[in-house]
Design brief:
By secondary structure, the chain is of the alpha/beta class. The chain has 2 domains: 196 residues, 2-enoyl-CoA Hydratase, Chain A, domain 1 (Alpha-Beta Complex); 48 residues, Lyase 2-enoyl-coa Hydratase, Chain  A, domain 2 (Orthogonal Bundle), CATH 1.10.12. It is built from 13 helices and 10 strands. The strands form 2 sheets. Strands 1-2-3-5-7-10 form a 6-stranded mixed sheet, with helices on both faces. Strands 4-6-8-9 form a 4-stranded mixed sheet. Strand 2, helix 3 and strand 3 form a beta-alpha-beta unit. Helix 11 packs antiparallel against helix 12. It starts with a helix and ends in a 10-residue tail after the last helix. GO terms for molecular function: enoyl-CoA hydratase activity. Its EC number is 4.2.1.17.
């Protein structure tokens, strides 16, 4: 689908029978594994916990009439939710997801339409979006439907992207006279290489979930009604490890994108050495030798 019809979706009234955030089959599994909504009230997102141990935080973008277009207030709520989950020692991983129709169809064009250069500069426009990429706990993007423009950028801010079979990714900003502003021109080449990134950014073309997986943008593709379930399983698997060691591992991998190979290898070695000062490293190796499951204390 071209960008123009999609933009009209974003700005139009919802059609009758608009798909709910999850299908009936998915909702049954979701309700079976997801805890109650957190006490803080949110207008544009839903915040829940998931998994048998309720150790996975789930942030669901919830602007169905706008296909989860990313307005300023929505992103502030995402930041606040991440603050809450990061402070919760019982949470070991975070999922950001949307609806079957759209993960996020882009930034809110109505909100940006009358922006000026001076307003963008003085207001440091989009700066707070980077909160997602700075989260200390691993963040999984569970993408169904459209992840275009800011939606694609939001997914790329996460550590791992799982996609439903119907997912569509793209950076169509050039079609409306601007460029990606939240990492699209910087993160995309690191995922898919310069040539492919140029093709996507300069044409505004959309790519399927299957194409995105082949390019390395997406880790795995799942059936639409299985996506959230599989993402929660991944979150649980991550959360079962030491949060302390997970944080060091995430820092080391992220550093590979920011530094030279020599600098990255040096940091990796030092972080590896630092694990020998932790109780969890000793417990993990002892449990392995004793052929039992480790009991991590995050110390």
């Amino acid at each position: 689908m071209a960008f123009k019809p999609l933009a009209s979706f974003i700005l139009s009234k919802p059609t009758a029978g608009f798909l709910k955030n999850v299908s009936k089959a998915q909702n049954v599994r979701f309700l079976a594994s997801v805890g109650a909504t957190q006490s803080e009230n949110y207008e544009f997102i839903k915040l829940t916990t998931a998994g048998e141990k309720q150790n996975v935080g789930v942030i669901t973008l919830n602007r169905p009439k706008a296909l989860n277009a990313l307005c300023n207030d929505l992103m502030k709520e995402v930041s606040n939710a991440l603050d809450s989950l990061e402070a919760n020692t019982g949470i070991g991983a975070v999922i950001i997801t949307g609806s079957e129709k759209a993960f996020a169809a882009g930034a809110d064009i109505k909100e940006m339409q009358n922006n000026t250069f001076s307003h963008c500069i003085t207001g440091n426009f989009l700066e707070h979006w980077s909160r997602v990429s700075k989260n200390l706990k691993p963040v999984i993007a569970a993408v169904n439907g459209y992840a275009l423009g800011g939606g694609c950028e939001l997914a790329m801010m996460c550590d791992i992207i799982y996609a439903g079979e119907n997912a569509k990714f793209g950076q169509p900003e050039i079609l409306i006279g601007t460029i990606p502003g939240a990492g699209g021109t910087q993160r995309l080449p690191r995922y898919v290489g310069k040539s492919k990134a140029m093709e996507i950014v300069l044409t505004g073309a959309q790519i399927t979930a299957q194409e995105a997986e082949k390019m390395g943008l997406v880790a795995k593709v799942h059936p639409v009604d299985k996506l959230l379930e599989e993402s929660i399983k991944l979150g649980e698997k991550i959360a079962s490890n030491s949060q302390l060691i997970t944080r060091l591992c995430k820092e080391s991998v992220n550093t590979a994108y920011e530094t030279t190979l020599a600098e990255g290898l040096h940091l990796e070695k030092r972080l590896f050495h630092s694990t020998f000062a932790t109780k969890d490293r000793k417990e993990g190796m002892t449990a392995f030798v004793e052929k039992r499951a480790p009991k991590f204390t995050n110390e």
